[in-house]
Write a structure and sequence with these properties.
Oligomer: single chain
Largest sheet: 8 strands, mixed
Helix content: 40-55%
Number of helices: 10
Number of strands: 8
Distance between the termini: 21 Å
Radius of gyration: 25 Å
Length: about 325
Amino acid sequence: MKKISIIIPCYNEEENVGPMAQALTDMFAKDLPNYDYEIVFIDNDSSDLTRPRLRQICKENKNVKAIFNAKNFGQFSSPYYGMLQTTGDCTVSMCCDFQDPVELVPKYVHEWENGYKIVIGIKTSSKESKVMYALRSLYYKVIKKFSNVEQIEHFTGSGLYDRDFVDVLRDLKDPKPFLRGIVGELGFKRKEIEYEQPERRAGKTHNNWYTLYDAAMLSITSYTKIGLRLATIGGGVLAVISLLIALIYFILKLCMWYDFPAGMAPVTIGMFILGSIQIFFIGFLGEYILNINDRVMNRPLVIEEERLNFDDED
């Protein structure tokens, strides 16, 4: 009997972990009765009642497992690490807030049985903020245009991954993994399933402008050269323009020594323009250096505090 693993990262999802575990259990009983399964929650140091509720769920259902992180290790490392701990013939990754519909899992499995090693969900629309969805769409188009590897639009990471691909992830040893980029860069032939993203079932989203910026910068610095190329090309163009302006001022001053006061306005304006551009690109360069630094330090993805219902594997 084939085994399907479900990995569910969570952080302060006390209102969702119970319904999610129940919904997946019912789904397996109804739609996938011929498969063994495990449901693995990986908790990123929740401060609410998520952990006590997971303890109770694991106590009642041995197919449900839990990993408790020692601290919050971020939105990318924790789900990625959780995938590496699964033991199934395939692993399905999904959010705990029901924005990745449970109904997608049988569709993923059906396509997996048809031979696809990767089956992913693609958002065609969303019940989230229209402004946010529009900004995401713009971001995907920009990153897709400038990336040197394939970028998948409106792919959140939700999908099914065959054990062969999970083994590829295990061998990567990437301390700063970005699954969405890895699937496009290193993934097998895949099947895309479109869906409309519903609203959160309960609780508040933990995404904010900083986390979205962090995701964007990780994608840009990992899979594009546009920032560095802009700095190089822009710097060269501005250097030529500055040299021409300096030459013109020099000639005019020589020709009209007493009638041509250069004044401080052009000097001040030029200084602030060039200074602001330099500061911007120094910050951009810092993002690339920060990305390199994280990889060079090669720290572990996650430090576990506790595991539940992994006794058989141990």
